[in-house]
Amino acid sequence: MEDYPKTLMEFETRFASEEACREYLAQLRWPEGFRCPQCDGRKAWETDRLLFHCARCGRQISATAGTVFEGTRKPLRMWFQAMWWVTSQKNGGSAKGLQQVLGLKTYQTAWTWLHKLRRAMVRPGRDRLRGLVEVDETYVGGHEDEAIGRGTQTKTLVVIAVEKKSRQLGRIRMATVKAASTDQLCGFVEQCVEPGSEVRTDGWKGYLGLPGRGYMHDRIIQKNHVEAASELLPGVHRVASLLKRWLLGTHQGAVRSQHLDYYLDEFTFRFNRRKSQYRGKLFYRLVQQAVCLPTTPYKDIVRPDHNI
Fold it and tell me: N or C end of the chain, less CB within 10 A?
């Protein structure tokens, strides 16, 4: 049963203490009761240090161990406030905004937190898209006058897949690719689209390998149509437009290529849950996925040779 606060007042009342936050994490981590990661024991008691002591092997484990929150020096309640703020904002929020809302001392802390949470926005083993799926690429990045066709020097190539439900858009998937080659484009489709689905693309040769990989390929060659490219693949072009508007509006376009995939994950997380009646459900999903993923060290988020 999905259990989450539906309003800000409910959130503040329910998570008014560290104990309440810790209990919620434990509930989502072990929905069927405690389970020891070492011996699979099912019985435990809580120690004075707020650790779960396995009755079978004696191992002690905290509710945050092996999760996004492991090793944090900040209160869990502050993390919960961050997750509520991020998911309750219709268009998301920037690191500067999070820093101001939580009163964090440094921009670096807010930026790191957001990147840790973005990594939790992808559910492990998530279902692939199916049915009719449009696939196309777009470029994200700064202005470049000399780019020709699918070639560019400074922009990042992003491939987008969109489920079509009659005239409605279903779920989406996005990822950066190094080149518009068959290996890169067909590899993306294999990761994101269920075999046997119908994949609609433009006439680019990079998609010619799709039938050999188990897909029905609806190849639309633009020169055979009077419609503009945006009308031939309207779903992808709509999503690409929304993505660029979001990157420019929420993040002022200040997203580096080495971090772009994680921003794509956040956009996908929001878009695929755009019809949720309560923003609290996004909070619930984020916490649920955050307890299933290990934390990412700062040095792995920011490469040594790059600055924020």
Answer: N
